[in-house]
Amino acid sequence: MMKMPKWSKVAIVGTLMGTCFGAGVYAQDVLQRVDAYLRSDYKVVVNGQAVQLANPPLIYNNSSYLPVKELAGYLGAVVNWQENTKTIYVVPRVNSNQPTEGNESNYTEIILQYPYAQYVDYQGATYPVLLNNTDQTYYRLSDIERMGIRTDALRKAKEKFTGQVYVSESELKNVWGNQPPQISYTNYETLVITEEKDPLKLKKLREYVTDFQFLPINGVVIASNPIIIDKLPEENTYSYLTNDNGHFYLTKLTLTQSTGWNNEIIYFVGSSSKEDIEAGKVVN
User: Fold this and answer.
1) Among the three residues 122, 149, 183, which one is the final residue of a domain in this structure?
2) 261 CB-side CA count, 13 A
3) Among residues 101, 96, 103, 121, which one has the least CA distance to residue 175?
4) For 172-209, what is each residue's pLDDT tens digit?
5) Do 123 and 62 fall into the same domain?
6) Which range marks the domain in which residue 259 is found?
7) Residues 55 and 35 occupy one common structural domain
């Protein structure tokens, strides 16, 4: 009886991207069939810590191949796949020009002055960001970190009324160099909503914003100009930032799930705790 080897022989097609991205259709002239070996007995140690990869290392032509997306996650990087250009973007969280020392407790104070939200393209993916223009443009820290940009040693600013942390564009240039985010022309949504991916929930939130954007109160129409909706950790709960007649408010939105006549899922939006986040600010 033949003894099986410790590895499995497999046929690998193309550039070994299957462990990271969905397979696409490629032209015949870019395909190359090769023989390689999966080595589940290989151990991988990252920064001194042993890690268990879902996809084992692969050996081809005496070289080791590791799954890009998994390994990048352990190294603190973000991996994006752009289908139209067939490009893998690996976004490291550390840039050679980034400062090595910083102060995480001594923040510059800023206030919401001209906040606006938009979608930007960066390193092969599209991200929602909240920006605030005062003496210069500031990016909200949580959005920057979602993009895979490490800001450990960058000087930061804290917004006086919300307590949210921002990083100035001049500081961020130390990280992204000559490849800054660009305004996205692939996402045309005028209302920016972060983190939420469910199309039904997104649709209902946008309908709510449209329905309550102009409210007549005692004969006076109050214009609520939407800025951004952020998904909160609590399920189906969101924070909605608006500019109402020159004053900024945060409203907590909650989605309630129900079932329609044909057993389809439907959502209702409720609002509560509308907070005047500039209660101490004198309005001119």
Assistant:
1) 183
2) 0
3) 96
4) 988 887 788 999 987 777 899 999 999 999 999 999 99
5) no
6) 193-276
7) yes
